[in-house]
C-alpha cells in the first residue's frame, strides 16, 4: 500500500515533492522522518540531540541548525516531541511566525489536551472546523481522517 503524502496542484493535476520541516527525531520521530525521505520528500530536520540529528542526516534528511531554520519555506511542519511543554515552546519560539502561512502543521506528539488546545488557539491558522471557509491547516480532531489539497 502506498502511504506517501501526495500534493496536487489547484486543478488536481500532477504531483510534487513536499518540503517538510521535522522537529523531534527521537525513537518515533527519527523513523517517521526517514520514511518521509524514502517516500521521496525533502525533509529538513532538527533535534536538540546531535546523535538523533546525525542519524536523520544519514537517512537522507537535510540538517537544520535550529527549529526555525527547519520550518522556513516548507509545505508542512511535523513535530514529534516528548511533552506538551516542549510542543508549546517549539510552536511559540520556532513555528508560529516562522513557518509559511500556507504550511500545514502536524503535531504527532502524545501530549495533554490543554497543550494541544493552547497550540491550536495561538496558531495563526484555522482549524479543521473552519476548512470550508479557509482551507485545511490544523486538525483539531485527529481521530478523524481527512484528505486535502495544499492550501494556497
Strand order, sheet with most strands:
5-4-3-6-7
Structural class: alpha/beta
* Cα distance spanning the termini: 29 Å
Reading the helices and strands in chain order gives EEEHEHEHEHEHH
Number of domains: 1
* Mean of all residue-level pLDDT scores: 80
Count of individual helical segments: 6
Poorly predicted residue ranges: 126-152
CATH architecture: 3-Layer(aba) Sandwich
Radius of gyration: 15 Å
Given the C-alpha coordinates, what overall shape results? Answer: globular
CATH class: Alpha Beta
CATH topology: Rossmann fold
Helical content, roughly?
25-40%
CATH superfamily descriptor:
NAD(P)-binding Rossmann-like Domain
Strands, total number = 7
Assembly state of the chains shown:
single chain
Beta-strand percent range:
15-25%
- Biggest pleated sheet: 5 strands, parallel
Protein described:
Helices cover 33% and strands 16% of the residues. It is α/β, with parallel strands linked by helices. The strands form 2 sheets. The chain has a 5-stranded parallel sheet. The longest helix is centred in the middle third of the chain and has 12 residues, at 84-95. The two termini are 29 Å apart.
Amino acid at each position: 500500500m502506498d502511504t506517501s503524502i501526495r500534493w496536487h496542484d489547484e486543478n488536481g493535476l500532477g504531483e510534487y515533492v513536499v518540503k517538510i520541516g521535522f522537529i523531534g527525531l527521537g525513537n518515533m520521530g527519527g523513523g517517521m522522518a526517514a520514511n518521509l525521505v524514502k517516500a521521496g520528500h525533502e525533509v529538513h530536520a532538527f533535534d536538540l540531540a546531535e546523535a538523533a540529528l546525525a542519524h536523520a542526516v544519514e537517512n537522507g534528511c537535510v540538517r537544520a541548525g535550529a527549529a526555525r531554520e527547519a520550518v522556513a519555506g516548507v509545505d508542512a511542519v511535523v513535530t514529534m516531541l516528548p511533552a506538551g511543554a516542549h510542543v508549546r515552546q517549539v510552536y511559540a519560539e520556532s513555528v508560529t511566525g516562522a513557518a509559511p502561512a500556507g504550511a500545514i502543521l502536524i503535531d504527532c506528539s502524545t501530549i495533554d489536551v490543554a497543550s494541544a488546545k493552547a497550540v491550536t488557539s495561538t496558531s495563526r491558522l484555522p482549524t479543521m472546523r473552519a476548512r470550508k471557509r479557509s482551507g485545511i491547516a490544523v486538525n483539531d480532531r485527529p481521530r478523524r481522517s481527512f484528505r486535502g489539497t495544499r492550501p494556497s
